[in-house]
Specification:
The protein is an alpha+beta fold. The protein contains four helices and three strands, in the order ααααβββ. The chain starts with 6 loop residues before the first helix and ends with a strand.
Length: 150
């Protein structure tokens, strides 16, 4: 019967339970630090990757602006006496310090002397996305603008 148990047996059973609970609580103390140590490197690499993609997008915007500025300069080349080297210098200046290559092409009028001929300016910039020394992506950012000579 339940009242037949001695008080000593009940006290011994309650003591056996208490230290076990205390041990379980003590073993979870460093769990948060360990989880953070496991997750933090992944989050840092992800953050660095996002920053590198943002930098590549900024470079793409600069390349597009350089192509636009060079094409705008090129359409008045016939009347202002500009050369292809001047147009390429305009693209380099508009690129904001990026090492770009610029191609100016007018298949119908290579001398840029006929009004209304179609002119194409292509600006290219080699890029690479590096995360902690690993190249994640690389290639060429390129922008092409087409316009008619004035």
């Amino acid at each position: 019967m339940w009242w037949a148990c001695s008080e000593e047996a009940h006290h011994a059973a309650s003591l056996a339970v208490k230290p076990r609970r205390h041990i379980e609580t003590r073993s979870e103390r460093g769990q948060t630090a360990v989880e953070f140590a496991l997750v933090a490197p992944v989050l840092i690499v992800l953050l660095l990757g996002i920053i590198q993609v943002g930098i590549a997008f900024n470079h793409y915007i600069q390349v597009t602006d350089a192509a636009r500025a060079a094409a705008r300069q090129a359409i008045v080349a016939r009347t202002s006496g500009l050369t292809i080297a001047d147009i390429q210098q305009t693209a380099t200046s508009a690129a904001g310090g990026l090492n770009v290559t610029t191609a100016v092409a007018d298949p119908a009028d290579p001398t840029l002397s006929q009004a209304g001929s179609t002119l194409t300016v292509t600006v290219t910039y080699p890029y690479s996305i590096n995360v902690l020394g690993w190249v994640v992506s690389s290639g060429n950012l390129s922008s092409q603008m087409t316009d008619r000579l004035e």
